[in-house]
Write a structure and sequence with these properties.
alpha/beta, two-stranded antiparallel ribbon, 17 helices, 10 strands, 42% helix
């Protein structure tokens, strides 16, 4: 019997969790607990859903139920609770397809945080490790930028109803995000390093040396990828993923409260209003551009070379109207390339007619995208800024793929 993915979403669509139970009796090997959902944007959430879900999970799971009470009150772990939503982040969470794993050191290492994040629509694994204070400003800032669909933590973070400070903080501040817990043994730094060596593209192959001694972010990688493979019933193709270690260097950290007060992403009085900084600039031609814009508004670079390179590109686009409008019309024809690549590198564990049809559709989408490479290069002819010249020269990397796609058409 084929097991479908937990999050089903079509090309260019918002992810929708399966309405059936997430932890059926044949899926309790990895999950020790059940998932807590807390947003009205997910179709399976209703006033009666929590109690019914918990009842089913208690019958099927050998471990205790998930415990993510919001707000924190004295309650049996996994018991039914009222669902709360935060309107300021609802739209971002509803559009999100990012899963994040977080692990914190124990004992004398408390405050040392490892984070791994993976967008199901973007073949890029971002890992971080840093020391945080007891208010966990860096963690909340990172989560505010990502607005994850689901956060993964070790079951020891809420064992026997005793929540750690970090677990409690995430539960209270990110009420649109589901929190899932798995057994601590899956946070294994050795497995995490193996995953990185196996999945990383050759262009980013040095990242494993950079993180070899960063045990907490490696542990987060192992748990996250194991969890994604389990719930989505897929494996990622070898040497297919961009893996980046990203610290807080060369970026400006804007904490969640400051971002809210400055109305960077949302208007405080009316969350649906475009009267905010993001609303002023939010006219991207592509989905990737929208994600990039949001991330850079919340965590702008402070590296002089990066800023100067972008300014040179901006100046050339404003001075050369023909270049600007040619690029604008071309970008309108592009699909979500990150999403397309992500679909291409996800290999189903079980083949079916549906997966075969999906592969055929992905090939058609890929060929359509590659056909735009020549017009894009032609539009960039004569560009002088270093960034645009780099984009002009990248086309030769696609030649091999284009030739393969043409052979498949024949």
């Amino acid at each position: 019997m084929n097991k479908g993915p937990k999050y089903n979403f079509g090309f260019l669509a918002t992810p929708v969790p399966q309405t059936s139970g997430n932890c059926s009796s044949d899926r309790t090997g990895l999950l020790s607990l059940s998932t807590s959902t807390s947003t009205s944007s997910r179709p399976e959430s209703s006033s009666a859903a929590p109690s019914a879900s918990v009842s089913k999970l208690r019958k099927t799971s050998k471990g205790s139920a998930f415990c993510t009470p919001r707000p924190p009150v004295s309650r049996t772990p996994g018991s039914a609770r009222t669902l709360y939503t935060s309107t300021s982040a609802t739209s971002a969470a509803a559009d999100s397809s990012i899963l994040v794993a977080i692990v914190e050191g124990r004992g004398q290492a408390r405050g040392e945080i490892g984070i791994a994040s993976l967008d199901l629509r973007n073949p890029e694994l971002i890992i971080s490790q840093f020391s945080d204070n007891q208010s966990y400003v860096k963690v909340t800032t990172r989560l505010n930028i990502l607005q994850p669909l689901e956060v993964l933590m070790a079951n020891t973070a809420c064992e026997n109803g005793n929540m750690t400070k970090l677990f409690k903080l995430i539960s209270e501040q990110f009420t649109n995000t589901s929190i899932s817990t798995v057994q601590r043994k899956y946070f294994n730094e050795s497995k995490g390093l193996q995953y990185i060596k196996h999945l990383c593209l050759s262009e980013y192959g040095t990242v494993h040396m950079e993180v070899a001694q960063k045990y907490y972010c490696l542990a987060a990688v192992a748990a996250l990828l194991k969890y994604v493979e389990f719930i989505q019933n897929i494996v990622y193709a070898p040497a297919s993923m961009k893996i980046v270690f990203r610290g807080s260097e060369q970026t400006t950290m804007i904490d969640a409260n400051t971002a809210c007060n400055l109305e960077i992403i949302n208007n405080r009085l009316n969350p649906k209003s475009d009267h905010c900084l993001y609303g002023v600039f939010h006219k991207p031609q592509t989905h990737g551009g929208a994600r990039f814009l949001r991330a850079n508004l919340l965590q702008p670079p402070c590296d002089l070379n990066t800023i100067a390179t972008r300014l040179d590109c901006l100046q050339e686009l404003t001075e050369k109207e023909e270049l600007f409008y040619n690029l604008q019309s071309l970008l309108d024809r592009f699909m979500d390339i990150d999403h397309l690549i992500s679909l291409c590198i996800q290999i189903p564990k079980q083949e079916s007619v549906k997966t075969a049809e999906s592969k055929i559709a992905n090939i058609i989408y890929l060929k359509h995208t590659l056909e735009l490479a020549d017009p894009l290069q032609a539009a960039l002819t004569g560009a002088q800024s270093p960034l645009l010249k780099a984009y002009f020269q990248v086309k030769h990397h696609f030649n091999c793929i284009i030739s393969i796609a043409n052979k498949m058409e024949l």
